[in-house]
Amino acid sequence: MIEFHLDGRSGVAPYMQLIQQVRQALRLGLLRAGDKLPTIKDVVAKVAINPNTVLKAYRELEYEGLVTARPGVGTFIARTLNDATAAHEPLREELRAWLRRAQAAGLDADSIEALFVTTFRTQLQEST
């Protein structure tokens, strides 16, 4: 099951952060069709967010056809965004190794994230 987190410094609306996290989990194969999302009550308790914000995110995901709500039962993943999850595992392992090297070099989490994001964005700009 996915565990949501919110970044108040991101400038992204909380409901959009939830949507993005579900989409990312679907792309990475961490969520599959039939998996149950946390209840609105559980999300509210975990990330201290307004229930209407979670409801808005879940409704948007339902509108996109990614989840289905079953009244009294929960919200379930309807479809995935990627069928090539096996191809991700070697890349995930390489990234984990890179993260271990970055930590061993003395970088803290914020520095690692900044290095990754700036490098990622630069690479995207160079490849377009």
From TrEMBL:
<dbReference type="InterPro" id="IPR000524">
    <property type="entry name" value="Tscrpt_reg_HTH_GntR"/>
</dbReference>
<dbReference type="InterPro" id="IPR036388">
    <property type="entry name" value="WH-like_DNA-bd_sf"/>
</dbReference>
<feature type="domain" description="HTH gntR-type">
    <location>
        <begin position="12"/>
        <end position="80"/>
    </location>
</feature>
<keyword id="KW-0805">Transcription regulation</keyword>
<dbReference type="GO" id="GO:0003677">
    <property type="term" value="F:DNA binding"/>
</dbReference>
<dbReference type="GO" id="GO:0003700">
    <property type="term" value="F:DNA-binding transcription factor activity"/>
</dbReference>
<dbReference type="Pfam" id="PF00392">
    <property type="entry name" value="GntR"/>
</dbReference>
<keyword id="KW-0238">DNA-binding</keyword>
<dbReference type="InterPro" id="IPR036390">
    <property type="entry name" value="WH_DNA-bd_sf"/>
</dbReference>
<protein>
    <submittedName>
        <fullName>GntR family transcriptional regulator</fullName>
    </submittedName>
</protein>
<keyword id="KW-0804">Transcription</keyword>
